[in-house]
């Protein structure tokens, strides 16, 4: 079984002295030589242009008229700057991306909290158990990582219908939480196994029950793993399109950012004054969050994907 | 469990009671997670398997038809077209994503601020929903998109990036690679930073050129990570759905319909639910085989790592 290491960058930040000296000069002399190489600069130039131009187009065209977008897509709209379409997008009654923020955020918070509440104790019980039986439970959860969500979403509808949660927010939350459990439990178990059992024994001797031991002693020690899981789940749920689209029909009146965009843009795909402002509204929170939490997000998503 | 000899009956009884309480507590801690995961993930898979053996159309009573649906998986033209498209996207996309990932990881492996910035530039689409990226690129590549309008200024005929069967799949693969290769860059950089500097110095002293160092020393050192990344990319691309919805809508003339797209399109027409779930189950099996392959590779890696 894989033992999860806390993300190396964070460890390195905490213990700068513990890093082998050899790893620091990974840059060193080779690096200085490299930075002068024209091939490298060409590579980085291409990378920058290709990655950033679409986002640049998204930003400048959100503030132009349709005619201006068609005539000069690449120009910065100094003269023809207009907030009209952005304003219309913000207050549009037809499809409301800003309204989608609230509902999506609610989903993210609900799923995050429930995932921690369910996955935490379960992972603790699995990690601390010496029985073979319990290890089978871990395998049972791991099997869930093989299931392509989109492929089984239709049967999920039938199951929700049977238990009376079809087309409800509760049903969507239940499905989303269940889909986060396998990877979360796997990451938590790996992390809890790195925490010495003596800590639990000490807590037991001091009279703490198992739940109390977990929530007051072990859980605070799991911070790196919890942060990783929260980032994975939050970004996953925020960007999820297929579950809300299929488990909440438009009649429910609830739109996430993605389903609102789908409802709107598929209707108005030729009206670029609707497309660009709404897409910018949909992308902005994520990109700002990414810039702000870049290091955590990159290491969290990478660890989660590789170990999960 | 080794029982100590010479225990009194009372001691034995106390022990058994303690152990019973322990397993009851474990069960209580795991119960809620196991229950939710079973109802929302495992049961739907069971339902899918059952439905795939029937001719259910979504309304009338279903008749059990055994493996008939599976027999048709390969001789139905739309299904085999979808397989061809999915296979093409997965293989070509993966090769490009891993290749570009390696090139840029080698260029950006040093620990410097500039390198971190460029890594983030390569990575950022990974946190944006694929649906939204698809709409953004559709607005750029469309007939009235920024690229075609710019070409028109130079008197060049518009290119049907998304409306010409020859180009649509290429555009789709291009956007998928654009959005996904940054993940590999980050993954490979993390692996490259664990390659000991002494090894590279030794190779340089032995007179190896920079290219030789990269191809003969560095890439073999991170080969296991590259293998895992390859399979992860394949598993991800086999399930491609959101981006197809927003970029091409499966068109033109169904030339970009991936397997997941087909499954969901079929399930909603309410015609061949049984057949569509058979396709879903088949997709699940392919995903599971690939995922098991990753797990096996990882275990081999871990053994190699601990054995070293």
Explained architecture:
- The complex is a heterodimer of chains A (about 300) and B (about 300).
- Chain A is mostly helical.
- Chain A folds into 2 domains: about 30-85; about 85-300, MetI-like (MetI-like fold), CATH 1.10.3720.
- Helices cover about 75% and strands about 0% of the residues of chain A.
- Chain A has helices spanning about 10-15, 20-25, 30-35, 40-60, 65-70, 85-90, 95-130, 130-140, 150-160, 170-190, 195-205, 210-220, 225-240, 240-245, 255-265, 270-305.
- Chain B contains 13 helices and no strands.
- Chain B has a single domain (about 75-305), classed as MetI-like fold (Orthogonal Bundle).
- The two termini of chain B are about 35 Å apart.
- The model of chain B has no long low-confidence stretch (mean pLDDT about 85).
- Chains A and B meet through helix 2, helix 3, helix 4, helix 7 and helix 8 of A and helix 1, helix 3, helix 4, helix 5 and helix 6 of B.
- Chain A: Its main location: membrane.
- Chain A: Belongs to the binding-protein-dependent transport system permease family.
- Greatest interface by residues involved: A-B, 101 and 95 residues
Please identify the structural class of chain A as seen in this structure: mainly alpha
Rg of chain B, Å, rounded: 26 Å
Residues in helix, % of chain B: over 70%
CATH class of the largest domain in chain A, named Mainly Alpha
Please tell me how large the radius of gyration of chain A is.
24 Å
Q: Total helix count of chain A? A: 16
Mean pLDDT of chain B: 85
Largest sheet of chain B: none
Low-confidence stretches of chain A: 1-32
Count of the domains of chain A: 2
Question: In percent, how helical is the residue content of chain A?
Answer: over 70%
Number of helices of chain B: 13
Helix/strand order of chain A: HHHHHHHHHHHHHHHH
For the largest beta-sheet of chain A, the strand count, sense and barrel status come to: none
Low-confidence runs of at least 5 consecutive residues of chain B:
none
The name of the CATH superfamily of the largest domain in chain A reads MetI-like
Keywords (chain B): Cell membrane, Membrane, Transmembrane, Transmembrane helix, Transport
Subcellular location (chain B): Cell membrane
Protein name (chain B): Sugar ABC transporter permease
Transmembrane segments (chain B): 25-51, 82-108, 120-147, 167-192, 217-238, 273-294
């Amino acid at each position: 079984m894989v033992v999860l290491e806390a993300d190396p960058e964070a460890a390195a930040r905490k213990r700068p002295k513990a890093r082998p000296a050899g790893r620091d000069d990974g840059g060193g002399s080779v690096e200085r030589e490299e930075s002068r190489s024209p091939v490298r600069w060409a590579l980085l130039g291409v990378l920058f242009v290709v990655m950033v131009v679409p986002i640049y187009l998204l930003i400048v065209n959100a503030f132009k008229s349709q005619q201006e977008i068609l005539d000069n897509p690449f120009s910065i709209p100094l003269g023809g700057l207009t907030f009209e379409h952005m304003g219309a997008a913000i207050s549009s009654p037809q499809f409301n991306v800003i309204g989608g923020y609230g509902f999506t955020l609610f989903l993210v918070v609900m799923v995050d909290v429930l995932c921690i509440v369910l996955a935490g104790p379960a992972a603790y019980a699995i990690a601390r158990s010496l029985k073979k039986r319990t290890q089978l439970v871990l395998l049972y959860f791991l099997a869930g990582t093989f299931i392509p969500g989109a492929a089984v979403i239709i049967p999920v509808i039938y199951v929700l219908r049977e238990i009376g949660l079809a087309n409800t927010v509760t049903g969507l939350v239940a499905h989303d939480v269940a889909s986060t459990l396998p990877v979360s439990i796997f990451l938590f178990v790996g992390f809890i196994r790195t925490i010495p059992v003596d800590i639990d024994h000490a807590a037991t001797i001091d009279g703490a029950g198992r739940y109390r031991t977990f929530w007051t002693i072990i859980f605070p020690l799991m911070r790196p793993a919890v942060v990783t899981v929260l980032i994975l789940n939050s970004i996953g749920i925020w960007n999820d399109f297929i579950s809300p689209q299929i488990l909440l029909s438009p009649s429910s009146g609830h739109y996430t950012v993605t389903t609102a965009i789908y409802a709107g843009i598929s209707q108005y795909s030729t009206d670029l004054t609707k497309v660009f402002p709404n897409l910018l509204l949909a992308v902005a929170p994520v990109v700002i969050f990414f810039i702000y939490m870049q290091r955590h997000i990159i290491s969290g998503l990478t660890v989660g994907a590789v170990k999960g | 469990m080794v029982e100590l000899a010479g225990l009194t009956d009372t001691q034995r009884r106390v022990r058994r009671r303690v152990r019973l309480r322990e397993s009851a507590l474990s069960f209580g801690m795991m119960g809620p997670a196991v229950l939710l995961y079973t109802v929302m993930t495992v049961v739907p898979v069971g339902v899918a398997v059952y439905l795939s053996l029937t001719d259910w159309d979504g309304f009338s009573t279903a008749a059990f038809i055994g493996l008939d649906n599976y027999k048709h998986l390969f001789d139905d033209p739309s299904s085999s077209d979808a397989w061809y498209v999915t296979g093409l996207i997965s293989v070509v996309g993966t090769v490009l994503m891993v290749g570009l990932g390696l090139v840029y990881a080698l260029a950006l492996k040093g620990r410097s601020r500039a390198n971190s910035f460029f890594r983030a530039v390569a990575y950022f689409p990974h946190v944006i929903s694929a649906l939204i990226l698809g709409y953004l690129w559709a607005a750029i590549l469309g007939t009235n998109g920024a690229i075609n309008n710019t070409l028109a200024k130079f008197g060049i005929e518009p290119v049907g990036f998304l409306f010409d069967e020859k180009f649509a799949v290429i555009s789709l693969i291009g956007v998928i690679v654009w959005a996904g290769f940054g993940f590999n860059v980050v993954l490979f950089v993390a692996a490259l930073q664990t390659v000991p500097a002494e090894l590279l110095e030794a190779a340089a002293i032995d007179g190896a050129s920079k290219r030789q160092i990269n191809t003969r020393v560095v890439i073999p050192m991170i080969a296991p990570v590259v293998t895992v990344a390859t399979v992860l990319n394949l598993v991800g691309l086999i399930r491609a759905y959101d981006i197809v919805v927003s970029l091409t809508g499966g068109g033109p003339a169904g030339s970009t319909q991936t397997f997941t797209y087909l499954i969901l399109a079929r399930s909603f027409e309410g015609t061949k639910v049984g057949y569509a779930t058979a396709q879903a189950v088949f997709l699940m099996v392919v995903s599971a085989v690939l995922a098991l392959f990753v797990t096996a590779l990882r275990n081999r890696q871990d053994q190699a790592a601990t054995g070293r």
